[in-house]
Amino acid sequence: MEIHLPNVPMLNIFSHLDAFSLLQAAQVNKTWNEVASSDFLWRKLCLKRWFFPHMPRKCWHEQTWKQFFLCQTRQEHSMSRARPEDFVYKEMFGDFGVQGYMSYLSKSGLTMNPEEKSVVCAVTSKTRLTAWDIGEGSMIWVSPQQPTFILKLATLPEMHLVITVDLDATIKVWNCRDMDALATNNMLSPCRSLKAVVTRDGPIILAGAISGDLYTYRLPDLLLISTVHALEVPINQLYCSPHVKWVFLNKKEPHVLPKVFFTDSLLRPAEYPTPVLCVISFTLCVRAFWTPRREDRITLMYQRGAYRTAGFVTFDLEMERTEDKIIVEARVIASFKLSHHMESPEWMGVSDKNVIVCSSGSSLLVYSMAGLQLQRFQDYPGEIMKLLVNPVYVIVTFIDGCLEVYKWEERSHYLTKCYRLQNVRHLGKQSVVPKTLCDNGSIARVVTKSAHCCFLVAYVLKLCS
């Protein structure tokens, strides 16, 4: 016997379901299918999964929000469903330097055009900004030679913009089409950290200086919005929360306490004469990672003592507004210490299910937020040099150049191993391994053998090449 409920109560009930459950509910009958396919429900899921301040009310052209969600999810998981033979190996030669400054200009999420090419921006010869078509394996744009070395690079794929800062603290915005920069400004102190983000107030660039000042600029015109003296030391760590509500700043020093700034107070100095912030009573933070799809939870990794004892502490940020001020507090909700017999981890990340992944020597470890070890992967050819952790993948880079790709299981706390991408040229151990980055169709990094031997390599999915 079928049970018929009014559409409004059903819509309210269905609003608490995830995508998998909505798809199941749609199979019950025609009425349930109609409610479970509601644009209201699927837009809510889209906003939760891929926050973007300027998402249109309707998906473009004929797409519904349900179709958009399913299309995006398929794109996200295209890499985890692949096999090693589905990738084409590419090498792009140039003087990328030992630091390998590189960032994707193509989008890893909310791709308006599923056929969009994978494009990477990189610094070559230390004084030129270049753009590379990863699928074609070719350089598609190069800037004029700059007066001095480019030290920092950030991209804003949503606006097809690249931001650079050079040795003279000159900050520039590029579109990688015109020869000249779109805008130029000067910081009063050399830059140590750089991040481009889209906020509800529009796109901005955050720059942490060696002086401890945090500069906030509007994009694309580089209008200075605010300058805040945030730390008494250089700002080496700068991490934004998923929806850019918070900005975390730190430098690993024994007597330095991290600070978290309320982003609105940086964007609207007239409304907030004094920046709203929280000082976290925690020292020697090595890494920090915001919980994906949650706005107020951050996990810090520390290393302390002669034996570099390591552990993790997770905080929830709580904000209280009164008539005359805003109070922000960081409350510890979980913590644990790793065994002193374990090699101290260098890299970490967090899933949206509050699961922590970290590397220790040649092992990949997965813990609950409270410290219960859930998984250990250790059948590796050598030391883990880097981890790339996002809400969908974990990509492990080894010292010999091999990559191992994992995916987070949708309905559990665990990682699933997908495949290994071999070092095609078998170049042996690398002294420096810069970041490994990916979008929905490729994985790219700079291979560095020495100051005079470095090049850009990429693994491109055949369907995207």
UniProtKB/TrEMBL annotation:
Pathway annotation: Protein modification; protein ubiquitination
Domain F-box residue range list: 1-45
Swiss-Prot/TrEMBL keywords: Ubl conjugation pathway
Keyword Acetylation: no
Alphabetical list of Pfam families matching this protein: F-box-like
The keyword S-adenosyl-L-methionine appears for this protein: no
Protein name per its UniProtKB record: F-box/WD repeat-containing protein 12
Annotated source species: Mesocricetus auratus
Gene for this chain: Fbxw12
